[in-house]
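Entry for zinc ion complex. Fields follow.
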Amino acid sequence: MKNYQKQLFSFDTLVQALEKIPTIGKKSAKRMAYILAVENAPLGLQISQAIHDCIVEIQKCRICGALSHGEICHICLDLDRKNGTLCIVAHPKDVFLIEDIGEFQGVYCVVEDYHSCDFTHLIERIQHEDIKEVIFAFMPSLESDVLIMFIQEKLEHLGLQFSKIAQGVPSNVSLDNIDHFSLARAFNSRVGT
Ligand SMILES: [Zn+2]
């Protein structure tokens, strides 16, 4: 049976690629490969084209680091979003989660870790955009508390108000594993740091 699949070289390559996606096991990979390549080939081609287009067209925004169609994202270009609040997230995908809650009207900054963060750029941006409040929307954990302290230290001379999401968010659970309601509640009941 194993040899049979190996001989279907392209099918086997597809199954192996799908298996690399987190949470997709061997069985699901095979089922998906069958649907996409055999049962519903037009869907397979559509997905393949969409993935290709995303890889070519989507980049990280030069200002905030969120995903963007052009050099600067839609949020950074929107003057209505310049309300003096900046939300710092750890991953570009976390911007989707906060946007889905639909209540945050400010701008974002993605800080994946303190080694890669350009603080000169961030400080210039805070001054230029007249930011007054910085909200940390990190997964609650010891590491994020250390990162928050580190960032605050770098920004402390700017006289900003700092807060972070806390209540209702369990520790060490990534934000995309928290249900929408809990995340919305945590975001709205944020606490000072
Ligand atoms: Zn941006």
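NOTE: The radius of gyration is 21 Å.
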